[in-house]
Amino acid sequence: MNGYQMPNNGWNQQMMPSNGWWDNNNNGQWWMNGQIPMNNNNNNGPQPFPDFEGMLPIEQSYIENILRLNSGKRARVYMTFENNPEWTAQVFEGIVEEAGRDHIVLSDPDNDTWYLLLMVYLDYVTFDEEIEYDYPFNDIDPAEALAQQGGPTG
């Protein structure tokens, strides 16, 4: 031992019992003896959601995708910066250029300014025109797409 001793507050005994093992190669999970991790996709990531033509996976239905559908539209982005006495709330106006899971890129052509805004501060977004919300599914019935791909049918 190197002279450092972990404090004994009961946490280790409760959270990580001694009859198991930590697997860094399988998404960093704790396994109890007798459990066998299953990984059939020959990589160490999670199983992907099946891709069917014209459909987005369920896990991609986030706000950044709604913003992407409305790319090129003028928007007002309302944000709150807590614990900042100078900027408690701010409104940014501009054209939606890009959106990611944690950010929005706006351009303001009126003053040649570009904004990189963090989603963590986002309250809401308004548009002057109708919000595009539906994903373009290429007029494919999801049940029909599943059947064509050999997926489960109802």
UniProtKB/TrEMBL annotation:
Keyword annotations: Capsid protein, Virion
Domain of life: Bacteria
Alphabetical list of NCBIfam families matching this protein: spore_gerQ (TIGR02728)
Annotated protein name in UniProt: Spore coat protein GerQ
